[in-house]
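Design request, tokens follow.
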């Protein structure tokens, strides 16, 4: 049984950057609905006990196209939002440390340059989707985008997403209306780079 990540901040703990009603709706309604539908699809497919990684990598083997689609869309919705919500903090570390800090400097030149690349990628995602910071097992970083609720585990081999930037309109429309760029700037104000750094350390062998 897959469960939503528990938030270590209050619904209004990310204000004024991400407002209370957006957190309540996004986490409490959208993410909750993806999680329930994913668990239903896992049961329908007889995949109880498998990890999300195993399920995403095995999608091509799911025979029933409706079940395969439900696993992809709702499994992505479940997993992607866990990563999105758990990387926020009410008192975030504003910069990465250790190995991630060094890898960002090596790959992008600076943290600001990485943020600019993520923002450009997120703004360039036509319609609903996500921008990602990924690492491979050797620690090489990449920025990618996915449509819908797809993610780099489904889309590519050997990538682990460590930062998830949701650019579905439900992530920002209540507060920022059509201003996706303003929402992206606000996202970085509550993104906890200590949490991203820990995910990088865990993913690199
Ligand atoms: Mn979302």
């Amino acid at each position: 049984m897959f469960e939503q990540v528990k938030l270590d901040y209050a619904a209004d703990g990310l204000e004024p950057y991400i407002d209370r009603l957006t957190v309540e709706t996004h986490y409490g309604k959208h993410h909750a609905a993806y999680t329930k539908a994913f668990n239903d699809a896992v049961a329908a497919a007889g995949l109880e006990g498998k990890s999300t990684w195993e399920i995403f990598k095995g999608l091509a083997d799911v025979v029933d196209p409706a079940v395969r689609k439900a696993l992809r869309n709702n499994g992505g919705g479940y997993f992607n939002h866990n990563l999105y919500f758990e990387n926020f903090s009410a008192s975030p570390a504003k910069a990465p440390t250790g190995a991630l800090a060094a890898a960002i400097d090596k790959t992008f030149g600076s943290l600001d340059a990485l943020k600019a690349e993520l923002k450009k990628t997120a703004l360039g995602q036509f319609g609903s989707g996500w921008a990602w910071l990924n690492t491979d097992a050797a620690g090489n970083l990449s920025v990618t985008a996915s449509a819908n609720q797809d993610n780099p585990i489904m889309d590519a081999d050997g990538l682990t997403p460590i930062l998830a930037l949701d650019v579905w309109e439900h992530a920002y429309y209540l507060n920022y209306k059509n201003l996706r760029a303003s929402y992206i700037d606000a996202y970085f104000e509550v993104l906890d780079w200590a949490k991203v750094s820990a995910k990088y350390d865990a993913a690199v062998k």
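Comment from the thread starter after seeing the answer: thanks! The beta strands are 129-135, 141-147, 160-166.
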